[in-house]
Amino acid sequence: MLFVIGTPISSAAEGSREVNVSSDEVQYSSDGTGAVFTGNVQVNAGGLQLQATSLKVNSEGESRTYQANAGEQTPLLLTCNDCADFVIQADIQKQAVFNDENNRLQLTGGLSVCADDACQRGKITADSADWQQQKLTLRGAPTVHGTWQLPETTETINMQAQQVIYHLDTGEVELAGDAQIERGGNTITGTAIHFNVNTGALKAESSTEQRVQATFGGDG
Question: 56-107 pLDDT, tens per residue?
Fold first, then answer.
């Protein structure tokens, strides 16, 4: 079964997009303001695709909320067609909630962000995340951890911070709160670190409470 829900999922600047939902079964509420999709749920909204066990849709006025749930053995899987091979996989029994009023996608519970389907080029793990207008904000409990391989190299970057903001359109990554990056045997810490996963460019910032510190590994 395929359902088309005529509600914008992008900002006005990006244009209005429909939300397409397919599933094995759907049940509508008696007042027509809600629906529950179950069984192999597939959601397509512009450049985003979501696989879930169930999806609950609620309407209130002109706004609509989509709540996707994982199954006991099936995690949520969210892919972004406009973000190269960008993949998000949420842990079991977690949720993805999208509100079309502010175009905000909230992911709760443990989740992983991968640079490809097999997570071979990079992976960031977090406790929760917000996705809004090509910006993914990841939060840890207490920290966000990540490993990323630079394009066309074998060099790997290890990162850690209380919050990580990933700009999907540019590859810019902002680490804030006890930020730390390890690269080539060297370690850099600071209040905030800006890093580009596409180019490898890096900049660390200090504050009155914490200066930038660097530790360089020896060559032996």
Answer: 999 887 788 899 988 878 888 888 766 656 678 777 668 888 887 777 888 8
Q: Is residue 126 part of a domain?
A: no
Residue 177: which domain range?
Answer: 134-220
Q: Domain with 100 in it: what CATH number? A: 2.60.450
Q: What is the pLDDT of residues 142-185, one digit of tens each?
A: 899 999 888 778 888 999 999 999 888 888 999 999 899 998 88
Tell me how far the alpha carbon of residue 207 is from its chain's centroid.
28
Burial (0-12, 13-18, 19+ Cβ within 10 Å), 38: middle
- Quick check: is 139 in a domain? yes
User: In one letter, which amino acid is 206?
Assistant: S
Cα gap 194→56, rounded to integer Å: 37
Same domain, 94 and 164: no
In a shared domain, residues 4 and 93: yes
* Residues 169, 200: Cα–Cα separation, whole Å: 15
Same domain, residue pair 57 and 157 = no
Sign of CA dihedral 104, 41, 168, 125: positive
| DSSP state for residue 29 in the 8-state scheme | -
Domain presence at residue 129: no
Question: pTM of the predicted model, to two decimals?
Answer: 0.79
104-114/95-99 β-pairing: antiparallel
